[in-house]
Amino acid sequence: MKTTDYDYLIVGQGLAGTALAWHLLEAGKRVLIVNDATLPSASLVAAGIYNPLTGRKLVKTWLADALFPYALKFYHQLEAKLNIRLVYPANIFRPYRSAEEKKNYEHYASEENVAKYIAHPSDNQSANFGINAPFGGLEVTGSGWVDLSALIESSRAEFIKNGQYLENKFDSNDLIISEGSINWKGFSIGKVLFCQGADGRENPLFGWLPFSPVKGQILDATFSNLKTDQIVNQGIFIMPGREADHYRIGATYSWHDLDWNISDDGRTYLEDKLKPLLDGGGYTIRNQQAGLRPASKDRRPLIGMHPEFAAVGLFNGLGTKGVTLGPYFANAFAAYLENGKELIPEVNIDRYFSLYYHY
């Protein structure tokens, strides 16, 4: 009986494909990653912020107590393996806009499931020189950012070194799917797993899923009068970068003009939000980037196997919180693929199978 050349063919090497590949390789599987590095990638644009409390009411991020510890463990293990830095812990400083907002925030922060993520309320700006915060602010802990560009590029170098990566413009028409086997360009494959981000909308095998990508734009800037090692968040974020005195400003959210092009409107929006946050001093915009976040209609990941082709799967829809969702659900998907451990209903694409049968 002929064995397969690879247990898994992973299509796409953004955050989703990278995290899934590492989990399957850790399980001892033979993996080939196929990726077109000339395509734009949301993972290479994203700020990579992880934040346990979101929104004006400090709502705890979905599954935060499970997602965050697992994701940080995953990234720290890769830091050691690849000899790079990926994780940058940083509290998030949320300036109060008014005395009333201060009162509301302090009320939300007193709730039991939120309080453990609050470092302390602050009436001074000592950690954030150059930020306009006359009412003080709230400091969220357990937060920070992950250098996704370093993750993807260093992982790719390792995959190439080990013969696990192929640079290729993937075409689904090259797949020959038959009962019990998959062939791709002469390779015999056990399962093919699509991790194509926003491009998943164009995949003929999964185009029936309710993808709802969100465009985001980010600015890179330097400031003449700003010093902080925290992430400042008030409508937009100001985040320290890898280089001293370089910051990232973001992000816009748009469900129209779904392309990879930067726009004057995006820059104006971010600058209009930025200026009231600054306590004097100027700034210089060094760069502007745009990306399409791979989100779904219900803002939950899209994970699972095709309703008709049992050896064809999808790992997508990580959206704005992919930096923590990615590692956790890559582990869950690997356990599903290898051990039959069921995916939670909120992420399993079988919740949308009715769309396929009416497609």
Describe, in plain words, how this protein is organized in 3D:
The protein has 359 residues and is α+β, with helices and mostly antiparallel strands. It has helices at residues 15-26, 64-82, 99-109, 112-115, 148-161, 264-274, 322-339, 353-357, and strands at 6-11, 31-35, 49-50, 53-54, 59-60, 87-89, 92-95, 118-122, 128-129, 137-140, 144-146, 165-167, 175-178, 181-184, 187-194, 214-223, 227-228, 231-234, 236-240, 246-250, 283-293, 302-305, 312-316. The strands form five sheets. Strands 1, 2, 12, 13, 14, 15, 22 and 23 form an eight-stranded mixed sheet that branches. Strands 8-10-7-18-19-20-16-21 form an eight-stranded mixed sheet, sandwiched between helices. A hairpin with a 4-residue loop joins strand 4 (53-54) and strand 5. Helix 1 runs parallel beside helix 7 (322-339) and helix 2 packs across helix 7. The longest helix has 19 residues, at 64-82. The two termini are 37 Å apart. The model has no long low-confidence stretch (mean pLDDT 94).
Describe this protein with a few key phrases.
elongated; about 350 residues; single chain; about 25% helix; about 30% strand; 8-stranded mixed beta sheet; 23 strands; alpha+beta; 8 helices
Helix content: 25-40%
Q: What structural class do the secondary elements suggest?
A: alpha+beta
SS element count, helices: 8
Number of strands: 23
Overall 3D geometry? elongated
Poorly predicted ranges: none
What is the percentage of strand-forming residues?
25-35%
Distance between the termini: 37 Å
